[in-house]
Amino acid sequence: MVACHECDLLHEICEVPHHGRAHCTRCGAELYRHIPNGLDKMLALQLAALLLFLIANLFPFLSLEFGGRGEQMLLASASFKFFSAGMEGLGVLVFLTSVLFPLMTIGGMVYILLPIRLGYRPPWMSQVYRVVRVVAPWSLLGVFMLGVLVSFVKLLDMATVIPGVALYAFAALLLVTTMARYIHDESVIWPLVGHDVGERVLSGSASEHGLLHCHICGLLSEGPAEDEHHEHCQRCGSQLHSRKRESVARTWALIATATILFIPANVYPVMTITQLGSSDSSTILGGVVKLIESGMWPLALLVFFASIVVPGLKLIVLTLLLVTVQRGSLWRLRDRTTLYRLTEAVGSWSMVDVFLVAVLAALVDLDALSTISPEVGVNFFAAVVVVTIVAAQSFDPRLIWDSDERSGRKELE
């Protein structure tokens, strides 16, 4: 048996065709997939990603030529500028999401897959995979690449921008990691460990039958439904819970925090451009207006959507989900689950403005000729993005379906 991680419904495991995917019959979430020769494909892509990652970090990423002066940056340079500007927290965030977490994700998968390919289980495999699952959502290579593209376009009018070898390697890395996520098949990893609950339960939710679903490895375990017992997965050692503890209260607190931070994030400037002694500070919305004035409508719409619309909609959607859960609403359960799924997927793209400022500040540092400096607004905006991502992760979508099960039990009574 397998339980849906979004609605907790139990399903009997059945065979799926090559490259096929099994989806939950109730909420539509993906349950599992079957990739032929999955181990070889996954390992090949992760090894290629590791090589491309090293190239992307060791060679020049971008170069800038302006007024007879030149400046070049490495991939990690995007975070160093924040340290020199006294924004250490922001520097750590950019370094983690653009360098360290991607490396941990790729390196962790190579550490797991290579020994499996050689026929044995690596030491601490469960612990390493848990770390990979935690940091993978914070590996924002695609968002960083979008920030690079936006900064590239913004600089074309004021200087000559030369892509480095590392930029091409980074683009290839993004493609390879996207393919790796698409063909990722967890059944390649966990069958080696064993443990099974059996197939005696064929209907209803896991919690109704006293089963706990591991969100890391997917194993069903017998255990009490009360969260205070702190049961652990027999297979990967992760802590089990019938529902995320204090999910509603924690998510409300994070939404309130993000809403407060959203105001200064849009009021204060995020960067200052100094060119030949003349300085000009701009907010997030001001940057969108300048792109429109330059005739870059597609880019302006992209930045506006990612930096303003997405955070605002995310707060509205999470508020709607919390209110309907607390009211025990049965309104459009599947649609609300899909809405949560989309909210969780697109939330990290709001980091594009943070990466944009990081790249521009690292690249444009030509003293009196031209300098771009980060401002306090980018701190608030980064905090909004991080808090909303954590808020989405704190919400338990299974709570949406608990109302349906309670309603069904009342009808039976």
TrEMBL record:
Entry membrane topology: Multi-pass membrane protein
Domain of life: Bacteria
Parts of the chain that traverse the membrane: 43-64, 90-114, 135-153, 165-183, 252-276, 296-325, 346-364, 376-395
GO CC, alphabetical: plasma membrane
Keywords assigned: Cell inner membrane, Cell membrane, Membrane, Transmembrane, Transmembrane helix
Pfam families referenced in this protein's UniProt entry, alphabetically: PqiA
InterPro entries associated with the record: PqiA-like (IPR007498), PqiA-like_proteobact (IPR005219), PqiA-PqiB_transport (IPR051800)
Location(s) in or outside the cell: Cell inner membrane
Family: Belongs to the PqiA family.
UniProt-listed NCBIfam families: pqiA_fam
The protein's name in its UniProt record: Paraquat-inducible membrane protein A
Organism whose genome encodes this protein: Solemya pervernicosa gill symbiont
